[in-house]
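Each field is set out as follows.
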Amino acid sequence: MQKFIKIGLLAILILGCEDVIDVELNNTEPRLVVDASINWFKNTTGNEQSIRLSLTAPFFDQAVPPANGATVTITDSNSNTYDFIEDGNTGIYRTDNFVPVIDETYTLTIIYEGEVYTAEETLKSVAPIDFVEQIDDGGFSGEDIELKAFYTDPEGEENYYFFEFISDVVAVPTLEVYEDRFTDGNQIFGFYTEEDLESGDVVTIRNHGVSQSFYQFMFVLLQQGSEESGGPFETQPATVRGNCINQTNPENFPFGYFRLSEVDEVIYTVL
């Protein structure tokens, strides 16, 4: 009899695991999300640029609503203004006459739903990627492929770097930020590893020059998004704000960042 009781209890526990748990989350008014990344790839004119505007949505929503009908401009220190026009109803605003200048300061202005948002940032140069080194016995297992993208930091300058590693192996790019506080003037590297990486896979490696403020913003953001920070429902220690300010209603602050970078790109095929 005891055996049957134990089996019955086990069956109840197993079936209980199949119940759907409804998680009630608080709904808030949508906020503007600004993805204003101006990237000037080396050996290009950099004239064609785009800015994506979207709205926050409930956690379980699949679609990201675009922010339509905004007026978007970027102005440089010489009062040259570049208009970004929305591409249909995508929330993507484009221009084909932007003029990138290293160390130039630019001001982003967005007018949306009667409110004015602004941000100011400087276009930063970047050191080129010298070469990519592949290691085939990396990782904890000693069987993972590791890539090191070496670059030479300019001596006597304060530099900050933002790396993107993009591949078809994973849907989300790997992002890393670096500073040269302890590596000034040395050859150093951006690091990438992925356990499913195999021979023949293609990895796009991008090194962006960024400002100190963007480095600090992304450093905190990456820390909060890491596996060590907890699950998707973990309460974050603080809201990470970018450099965009709502001039009309400061309490209705946007998310995102206005960044301008010179970018060096290498497309690497795993050996």
Summary: The mean pLDDT is 88. The chain has two helices and 15 strands.
